[in-house]
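Run: sequence + adenosine-5'-triphosphate -> complex structure.
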Amino acid sequence: MENEVLLEVQHLSVGFESYNARVEKVFFNAITDLNLTVRKGEIVAIVGSSGSGKSLLAHAVMNILPDNARTGGKMYYKGELLTPEVMNRLRGRQIAFIPQSVAFLDPLMQVGDQVVGTLGEKARALQQKAFEHFGLKQSVAQLYPFQLSGGMARRVLLSTSYVAETEMIIADEPTPGLDLKIAIEALKDFRVQADQGKGVILITHDIDLALHVADKIAIFYDGRVVETADTQTFRGDGQGLKHPYSRALFNALPQNGFNLQRCPKCGATCATWNVDEEGMRCGCGDS
Amino acid sequence: MAILEVKHVDFRYGSGPWILKDISFSVEEGERVAILGPSGYGKSTLAKVIAGYLKPAGGEILWEGKPLPATGFCPIQLIYQHPEKALNPRWKMKDSLEEAGVPSEEVLTEMGIQEKWYQRWPNELSGGELQRFCVARVLKPETRLLICDEMTTMLDAINQAHIWNFVLAYAKKHNMTLLAITHNRYLANQVATRILRIPELNHVEVDQSSL
Ligand SMILES: Nc1ncnc2c1ncn2[C@@H]1O[C@H](COP(=O)(O)OP(=O)(O)OP(=O)(O)O)[C@@H](O)[C@H]1O
Ligand SMILES: [Mg+2]
Ligand SMILES: [Zn+2]
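>> structure
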C-alpha cells in the first residue's frame, strides 16, 4: 500500500506580466499544467533544464512568488486545499524551505538568529546541534551573511531545515559549493528524515547525488514534467528512460560521455531544440 | 613561454587563518588547465587572486612575465559559480551585459540569450539564465585568460555541455587560455588538457569548519 499523500500539485501554472525590449507589457507562462505528488516517506528529486520552473514550483508551494506572478491550478497539503492563508501558517512549522540563492539570507541579521527564526529560544540548542552536525563552529552563529563563504552559507541554510520539526522539506539546490563529504551527509539526513515519515522535494542538477537517496525523479522541461522515472532507470545506460529529453540529459553528463546531439540540417545542439510530449527536435525546419 | 605564472602565493583575509600557502604553477598560452578538488582548499580565493581582485600577502602573479596591468580591460576574466553575486541587483540585465561593450551576435545566439530578458532585473531570471549573461559578457577577443570557477555547477547537464562546447571552441578560435576550477573530476577530464589537484598545490592546513 502506498503512503499518505503529503503534497499534491494539480494543474499548476505560474505566469508573469513583464515588459519586452520595446517596453510593451507582455504575459508569459513559466509553468504550465504541472502535476506532482509527494508522499510521506518519499524523496522526489526534481532535475531538468535550467529555467524550467523548478525554483518557481518551490516558491509557488511556499507562497513566496513575487507580486507580479499569476498562478492557476490547485495544491493540497494532506488533503487540505493549500490557500495562501494555510501556507502562511505551515511555512517554517510544517514545511521547511532551503532556497537556491544564498541571497535569501537576511543581510542584517546574525545567521544563528536566522536559523532559530520564529521558533523561539527553545530552538537555540537545536541550532547549536545543527551547526555541530554540519561542521560549523559555534562562533559562526554571530556572523552576518557577508562574512560567510558559499559553502558556509549553504550549511547555514541546511541548518534551518534541521532545526524545524517539519513534516516536509523543499530543498532547492542544497549542495553546490559543499565539500563532497558534507553534501553526502546532508543528503543522508534527508533520507533519514524521509524514513521517519517526512516528505522531501530535492531540486538538483547533481543527478549523481540525487540517485543516492531519491525514490523517484521528476524530469522538468519548460514548466512541465516530461517524465517521472524510477531512480534505477537513471543508472546504467539510461535506455530505460522514456522521453528523448531525459535520455539526452543522461548522455550529456560528463561521466556518460558529455554528448550532445546535433541537428543534421543546421548543426544546432539539442540544448536549443523544442521539446514536447512526444519528443524533441530542432526548430530550423519549422519556419 | 608561460603566459601566467603563479609564484609562491600566500593569502589570508585580514589577520585570519591562511587560506593559500605557497602556491606555484604556470600556464602556457592556449592551454586548458583544470584545478580540481573539494571545497575548503581555497579554489575560489585562488581564482580571485589570479584575476587581481585580491592582493596576495606573499608571492606574485605574473602575466606575460610582468605584474597585471592596473588599468584598462583586464586580460584575465573570471566567471563565478554564483551569478547572482556577480551581477549588480540594481541594474537591468541589458546594462550588465553591455557594461564593457556589446557581445558579438554569435556569442549571444550560442549562449541562447533572449531579448525578452533584457529589461528584467537579476532576481527575475533563473540561476542558469543569469550565468549565460555572465559568460557572454566576457567572451570577447580582449579576454586572453578565462577563469571558470564552477561555471556550470548551477546548470543542467545539457546546458553545461552546450556552454562548455562553445567556450572550448571559442577559446580555440581566439587562442584564449582557460583555467577551469571544479570539484567534478569527470568534467575536468572532459574539458582540460592538464589537471592540477588543489590539495597538492596548496600547502595549508584546512580548517574543516570554514569550508
Ligand atoms: N520574477 C520573475 N519575472 C519574470 N520571469 C521570471 C521571474 N522569476 C522567474 N522567471 C522565469 O521563469 C522561468 C523559470 O525560472 P526558475 O527560477 O523556476 O528556473 P529553474 O528551473 O529553477 O532554473 P535553474 O536550474 O537555472 O535554477 C525562467 O525562464 C525565468 O526567467
Ligand atoms: Mg532554480
Ligand atoms: Zn536544425
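>> summary
Residues 116 and 124 of chain A are 6 Å apart (CA to CA). Chain A has a mean pLDDT of 89.
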